[in-house]
Amino acid sequence: MRIAVINETSAADRNADIMAALEGRGHTIINAGMVKNGAKPELTYIHTGLMSAILLNLGRVDFVVGGCGTGQGFLNSAMQYPGVFCGHIVNSLDAWLFAQINGGNCISLALNQGYGWAADVNLRFIFDRLFSVESGAGYPAHRKESQQQSRQLLADISRMAHQPLAGIVAALPDSVLRPVLEYPGFRELLDVPAIQDGELRSAFQQRM
Amino acid sequence: MRIAVINETSAADRNADIMAALEGRGHTIINAGMVKNGAKPELTYIHTGLMSAILLNLGRVDFVVGGCGTGQGFLNSAMQYPGVFCGHIVNSLDAWLFAQINGGNCISLALNQGYGWAADVNLRFIFDRLFSVESGAGYPAHRKESQQQSRQLLADISRMAHQPLAGIVAALPDSVLRPVLEYPGFRELLDVPAIQDGELRSAFQQRM
Amino acid sequence: MRIAVINETSAADRNADIMAALEGRGHTIINAGMVKNGAKPELTYIHTGLMSAILLNLGRVDFVVGGCGTGQGFLNSAMQYPGVFCGHIVNSLDAWLFAQINGGNCISLALNQGYGWAADVNLRFIFDRLFSVESGAGYPAHRKESQQQSRQLLADISRMAHQPLAGIVAALPDSVLRPVLEYPGFRELLDVPAIQDGELRSAFQQRM
Amino acid sequence: MRIAVINETSAADRNADIMAALEGRGHTIINAGMVKNGAKPELTYIHTGLMSAILLNLGRVDFVVGGCGTGQGFLNSAMQYPGVFCGHIVNSLDAWLFAQINGGNCISLALNQGYGWAADVNLRFIFDRLFSVESGAGYPAHRKESQQQSRQLLADISRMAHQPLAGIVAALPDSVLRPVLEYPGFRELLDVPAIQDGELRSAFQQRM
Predict the structure, then answer these.
(1) Which candidate in A47, B23, C78, D29 could, as Cys together with C52 as Cys, close a disulfide (CB 3.0–4.6 Å)?
(2) What is the three-state SS of C7-74?
(3) What pLDDT does residue C125 have?
(4) Measured between CB atoms, does A121 come within 8 Å of chain B?
């Protein structure tokens, strides 16, 4: 699986813990956000939410690990966009249930609140459980089908309730879009020429 | 403040606890969802998320208290729509920080996972803190302005990223919209003739 | 390892979850307490704490898994006796740290408070971590020696601060000791004739 | 109420948070332990547990707020002595239940594990609930009497199971007792000449 780790500024010092906790699992990890609190250029959860949505919608990654101080800001930001299904994950049981029941493609971690000593171990425990079960397997097992139906409906609603990403990219103000497009490494990850949807490719091209 | 409590089926047995915990706070509480697990007609988080979004967007309520087994499903459902800013709230510190930092209009409670003995007291503690601080006051105080800017940007993005509610109402499949519109009491709450936005009023009228 | 599971009355309905979560780990599990809330004869945490201390001090088991509604009562009861070192364990991180840092021989689980849906899975996660590390291995690794010294000192203090178990058995009122000695199966587990310490053997014999 | 705050070395940097969270509650607060990680002279949980027991048994304070990295070490140390009833308190619900059900005289806080941003607020919430209810009031109310009986039995057992404090003071090795007696301010707090129990007064005098 291709997993993007995307940290905003206030909890960017946790980035090393996240990267370490994801190591050795056989996944391709893309460290797409900040790695140090307050470094420049700076990304807030407004930007990391958008980055997550873009990478997921373009299929550049399969999963995003994000977060912020409490986890609520990134969650609310990433969830503004179509096709993002994000869990607020504080411990390994949250992770294990979210993966099986909700089968989302994004998690938001609380990286300052409650983030004390041994929180790096807690991250490892979270990823152990998140990736040890089949996404969308259903829990408990006999509710698999009804949970699957809910997820399918949610995916349909997400498309109906949102503008197409091309329209969003066209509409977003510079203060939101530019820090994302100009963030070191993001343009390469985005790979605009390779975007197959012509409207979306063109939307990005016009903002660059 | 007008607060809607909206429970889906799997955790509807917690409804009485939520209602009791909200009592005596001087708010108008509207019990808009289910009150008993598995009763008929049944609402899943797909429906309660939509109900929340409709009531908030029409200004019928100021705040929604929702949730589901883990809190993740309702959260992901309600957040599909414009103008919904929802926190995943497990304890009183979550509530206190979310109110001040994120200033959202919705919370999603975990009503089965971790919901054991004295969880009704925990709900009371959550509401004590949620409603004891000024929404959007900022925390810590010196970050008030930057947090306010993020919230404002998020509200703008929400409008840009979503279809207008009228379009969503028109597009949603019957399996999503009908159980909501036909849920006992919801039509009165919705009060279609009183909707000022003509397009939105008309969208509802056409689905009834 | 020989592990005793010892439930008091208020959370005895969780016994089946604990037993299931301990299964298949290669340990010998002795279900020494209650298995159903309110059954007769009834054990309170006063009794289960004493049972734990007796079994540990006699070497009948290597480890005790106890608990009560919040976990605090059993903890305070078991810790009255010499040679009991008990952690209050709520999640898998607690378990992992306690095993390595404190290297105790007893845990107290919160079996009503916070014990909701999927709490049985949480128990499994707790035991996964509790038994996956070397007891007393030290965490972090470089503090191994100083943590070991603290544990050794604590064991010494425990002996100095307490009466010998024989004296305690002799002194305890009937209301505390008799329900323990008469609890179905406990006498066999205790196996008085096999107690090597003559004073202790005699103390038990005189109370029977 | 007279409350002693007693920090060991690994979490002594949290002392200022604890003191601030206890402020303005009308209690007399005695800051008897360390205030800075690694300062000299250094106290481990071995020492702070003993200090707690001495101050409680002599009636110098009514309540002790202690803790360590995870809370388990101080808990196990303080609980070695007679007359100490200690809760492991992580959040405000723990505090509220422990005060009413267990009515103890000591709490052990987790001051590194899970101690992240806003943990100072969490401490305030803990003390808000710990001191807002009557100690030993019983919860739920109808279990008041049976909980009271358990507490009374536990107090009796504590006396029977332990050596008298005088004997403990006499027996403890220098490495445990001396750092306590020599800790700045502790001797004044101890006030040996004022100890009414002649045996205990004499035990302290002989170790000084």
Answers:
(1) C78
(2) CCHHHHHHHHHHHHHHCCCCCEEEECCCCCCCCCCCCCHHHHHHHHHHHHHCCCCCEEEEEECCCHHH
(3) 98
(4) no
The pLDDT of residue B121 is: 98
User: Are D121 and B93 an interchain contact pair (Cβ–Cβ within 8 Å)?
Assistant: yes
Distance from CA of C125 to the nearest CA of D (A): 18
* Residue A78 near residue A52 (C-beta atoms within 8 A): yes
Is D113 in CB contact (< 8 Å) with chain A?
Answer: yes
Q: Is the dihedral of CA C74, C79, C84, C87 positive or negative?
A: positive
Which residue of D76, D102, D113 is in closest CB contact with C102?
A: D76
Confidence at residue B129, expressed as pLDDT on a 0 to 100 scale: 98
Q: Which residues of C touch B114 (CB under 8 A)?
A: 114, 116-117, 119
- The predicted structure's pLDDT at residue A200: 98
Taking the domains of chain D in order of start, what are their residue ranges? 2-207
CA dist., res. A16 & res. A22, Å (int): 10
Across the interface, which of B46, B86, B113 has its CB nearest the CB of A153? Answer: B46
Best C92, C101, C139 member to test A by mutation, with max A CBs in 10 Å, is C92
pLDDT band at A87 (very low <50, low <70, confident <90, very high): very high
Q: Kindly indicate the confidence band of residue A144, based on its pLDDT and cuts at 50, 70 and 90.
A: very high
Cβ-defined contact of C93 to A129 (cutoff 8 Å): no
Chain D contact for A118, CB < 8 A? Answer: yes
What pLDDT is stored for residue D88 in this prediction?
A: 98
Q: Identify the residue among B89, B121, B147 best suited for mutation to test binding to D, counting D beta carbons within 10 A and taking the highest.
A: B121
Please confirm whether the linkage preceding A179 is cis (ω < 30° from 0). no
pLDDT score of D25? 98
pTM as predicted: 0.98
Chain D interface mutation, best of A91, A117, A126, highest count of D Cβ atoms under 10 Å: A117
End-to-end CA distance of chain B: 29
Q: What is the ipTM of this complex?
A: 0.97
Quick one: fold of B2-207? Ribose 5-phosphate Isomerase B; Chain: A, (3.40.1400)
Query: End-to-end distance of chain D based on CA atoms, in angstroms?
Result: 29
What's the pLDDT score for residue D158?
98
pLDDT score at A207: 96
Residues of chain B with pLDDT under 70: none
Minimal CA separation from B46 to chain C, in Å? 21
Average pLDDT over residues A67-84: 98
Predicted pLDDT of residue D55: 98
Task: Check residue D99 and give its pLDDT.
Answer: 98
Mean pLDDT of C22-51: 98
- Residue D159 has a pLDDT of 98
Annotate chain B with DSSP letters as a single string: -EEEE---GGGGGGHHHHHHHHTTSS-EEEE-S-SSTT-SS---HHHHHHHHHHHHHTTS-SEEEEEESSSHHHHHHHTTSTT--EEEE-SHHHHHHIIIII--SEEEEESSBT--BTHHHHHHHHHHHHTTS-TT--SSGGGHHHHHHHHHHHHHHHHHHB--HHHHHHHS-HHHHHHHHTSTTHHHHH-GGG---HHHHHHHHHH-
Q: Which residues of chain D fall below pLDDT 70? A: none
Residue D115, pLDDT score: 98
Nearest CA distance, A4 vs chain B (angstrom): 20
Q: Which of D70, D82, D173 sits opposite C98 (nearest CB)?
A: D70
Tens-place pLDDT, residues D15-35: 999 999 999 999 999 999 999
Closest Cα in chain B, distance from residue A55 (Å): 16
Q: Find out whether A53 and A68 touch, Cβ atoms under 8 Å.
A: no
Q: How far apart are CA C28 and CA C17, in angstroms?
A: 16
CB contacts, 8 Å: B93 with chain D = 91, 118, 121-122, 125
- Which residues lie across from C86 on neighbouring strands? C106
